[in-house]
Design goal:
The structure is a homodimer of 472-residue chains. By secondary structure, chain A is of the alpha+beta class. Chain A has 15 helices and 18 strands.
Chain lengths: 472, 472
């Protein structure tokens, strides 16, 4: 940490010159507010929070920070779950909240140009009004911003059919560590023109540049959807049913798995929905179908209903009204919060090839028994993306601090042995970085470090993230 | 060029030690054979051609070449159209043809693991046999290899619905310039675990590493398809019809545009197909629809037929038999060869947002008039990807060498002003590199160079490609 410069009053004065007085905050309350995201109860305060309002200001800011070797951590809506927006090395928290304009929705070309501070759901809704569809829909879509979604290559329920954020990004305006401004690509659907800097930036967690404009591709909005809830008497069987549905030739637009505890705990926070529960029900699948032909959706729903019988499904409930549908999805979107309210916890964002999900679930439980922790699992089963929530419950602090990381390592080793990896959609950030050598060999990490060094030689952009601590 | 080491007998002897005698060729005929691809009539001979048969041999070879600063240019099937496989700096041509195994088609997970020397169509067919679909289908799919497809992020007709090669690549085994071997990602559908080295490798034209294994994602094979041929009395109107079809909510699985000359010239080489021609017919759209419901395809075909009437379509022909369908697609796939046989030519792989296609076509013709060249245009209209074939005809050599490049620069400036870029699917390679500064600013090219330097400090991997010559 000591290679970085601590902010002095002189630095703050200069920042105020660059961004105006109202563009720089150093009061304790602001530093605390911008010193956390949604990751556990972690707080790492910056020394200043800045609010640039145009690309030239971001450029001037980075040029100055780079010359003075001051860390700069971009923050969006601070809804992240891997601690990626924490100012772990102090310095400047760069809030992109003034970059909140939808600059153009180009109906002719099914494209949109937006600033990174736009809230996901606001953008989704603006596109929908014009008959266009922006599919990525993280659980936090009502508050998270598109810039943050790009930084972590966010997913969401619809990824199972429509893919994650990076599939919709065509072109980016990016300010580099030295203040230079580039466009990474072009506004086209196919591109074989030089290195794919667009996809290098997406998922790089603010460590390679600051995104100031995004060009998205969009789809026509599907006119129909249908939501099903299927309770199962076995969580593993529910996971097996997921693969069977795809093998029947059906690609749902949502395929969510929730273990018993996940539903039970969440029902305490959501009161306008009734779902079958009871000791015999061990898991639910929440399934969405979409398209333009309502009859075809019902045909698929019937196929699913017939098929899940072989996997110990208790029933198949179809949401008949928009209100029922919304209530079920609200339930799913609240699971994370509910688990968080229940206990101190750690969330692992494991992802494996889809058909390996039953093995992953069984393995997580076995590792839990070995290390004495309880886990609540839920997530995007159609993508093989299982959120493993490890709850502290009555574990001792020592077990939590010392033993648990060994158990988490075992979970990740299992994930990798199944062809999977550490994070499907939350990113590595601060809390997963020391597990990176489980999935990548030394040569791979050396390449990633070399790219970081090439784009940000002084390491000012979001230091302390992604890369394992060197001494490990 | 003089920074590289020329091969001596001692080097060749060492290569033979590494790869066996039959793994190294230095005879004139081999050097000539591996000294060209399908780009114009260019020949740049290597000093040796090598044929490693496993990743360890590739690793040993690169380690040795790197230590001795010998250029290494990977070659696939040499069907490329941008000169990317030419040994412009001599050294070693690294043929991947012994890497021709389909290692696994994993039906449970809709994935496959293959070696890069497998021919595209062979892989496509092997997947199809198991009910699985690998969509990318470049015109040369009968001979091009998957490794080459990755190197240039190849497209093909089906990209309009299914996307290009990079959308199907989950994970890569890559040998780095220094001989280190890495896996870039994981075998998962979503991944937020470090930098996206997978997508950095795809499209990098063999300049960042040598791909030795590929993990693809696959789709269920659609059971039905339907091919339409639509002749138009105006090429620009045909281009306008393309956008109108998408706006009607139809996403065809093929949407190919062919100007009059492209069809007329190709008909000389394909004799088992009859298409309407004549002076009044200025262009054709070849349209494919696919899915699992034959009735739905006919419904969409009727919508298209009604819609194209407004754009001066002469007729709508539906291929009634598989033979007719195959003949039409064979015609389309042969256009490139036909143009090549007709005259000395240069092909530009322009790509713009789809709705800008009419403007691009008009602009290309205007620029042609200004500089005195004739162009034949065809390509993947649904993606905005227009192949502009400039034929030498009776242009003087001087006009061809000196004036034409200025005209091409104007075409690319037009492309960029429309939101497009230099290459949609052929890559930059050797022949487009000096146009790169039309689309990228200095800071962007500096980033690309820095990445190249970080991964290949001595610049041995496919030198002389992608980056503009420094003196320009």
């Amino acid at each position: 940490m000591d290679e970085f410069t601590k902010l002095t009053q002189e630095h703050v004065t200069h920042l105020q010159k660059l961004l105006g007085n109202e563009g720089v905050r150093v009061d304790e309350e602001s530093l605390r507010e911008y010193g956390h995201d949604e990751t556990e109860d972690l707080v790492h305060m910056p020394e200043a929070v800045v609010f640039p309002s145009c690309v030239d200001e971001v450029s001037a800011l980075l040029k100055y920070a780079n010359e003075n070797v001051i860390p700069v951590t971009a923050v969006g809506a601070r809804t992240g779950l891997s601690g990626g927006a924490l100012s772990t090395h102090g310095g400047i928290a760069l809030s992109m909240e003034k970059f909140n304009a939808i600059l153009e929705i180009d109906q002719r070309n099914f494209q949109a140009t937006v600033e990174p501070g736009v809230i996901n759901y606001v953008f989704h809704s603006a596109c929908k009004e014009k008959g266009l569809f922006y599919p990525p829909d993280p659980s936090s879509w009502g508050s998270c911003t598109l810039g943050g979604n790009l930084a972590y290559n966010a997913g969401g329920p619809k990824a199972v059919k429509y893919g994650v954020t990076n599939q919709y990004v065509l072109n980016l305006e990016v300010v580099l560590a030295n203040g230079d401004v580039i466009w990474t690509g072009a506004n086209v659907l196919k591109n074989s023109t030089g290195y794919n800097l667009t996809q290098l930036m997406v998922g790089s967690e603010g460590t390679l540049g600051i995104i100031t404009k995004i060009v998205f591709k969009l789809l026509p909005y599907p006119s129909e959807d249908l939501t099903l809830l299927v309770p199962f008497t076995s969580a593993e069987k529910a996971c097996e049913a997921v693969s069977a549905i795809f093998h029947a030739g059906i690609t749902p637009s949502g395929m969510e798995f929730m273990e018993k505890d996940a539903i039970d705990w969440t029902l305490k926070y959501v009161d306008d929905v009734s779902v079958p529960t009871g000791d015999h029900i061990r898991a639910h699948l929440l399934i969405e179908l979409d398209g333009n032909d309502r009859e075809a959706l019902y045909t698929d729903a019937e196929k699913i209903a017939a098929l899940v019988e072989d996997f110990d499904a208790v029933d198949v409930l179809i949401a008949e009204s928009q209100a029922q549908r919304d209530a079920l999805w609200k339930l799913r979107r609240r699971v994370g919060e509910a688990v968080k309210s229940h206990s101190i916890y750690k969330e692992e964002d494991t992802v494996v090839p889809r058909a390996e999900l039953p093995k992953l679930l069984r393995g997580v439980k076995e590792i839990g028994e070995k290390y004495g922790f309880k886990s609540v699992c839920y997530g995007h089963a159609g993508d093989g993306n299982l959120h493993v929530n490890i709850v502290k419950g009555n574990m001792t602090d020592e077990a939590w601090e010392v033993e648990l990381p060994k158990g988490i390592s075992e979970i990740f080793k299992l994930v990798v042995s199944l062809g999977g990896t550490l994070s499907g959609e939350h990113g590595i950030g601060f809390v997963q970085k020391n597990y990176m050598d489980i999935v990548f060999n030394h040569a791979n990490l050396a390449v990633q470090r070399a790219i970081k060094k090439a784009l940000d030689p002084k390491g000012i952009l979001n230091p302390g993230k992604i890369f394992p601590d060197q001494h490990l």
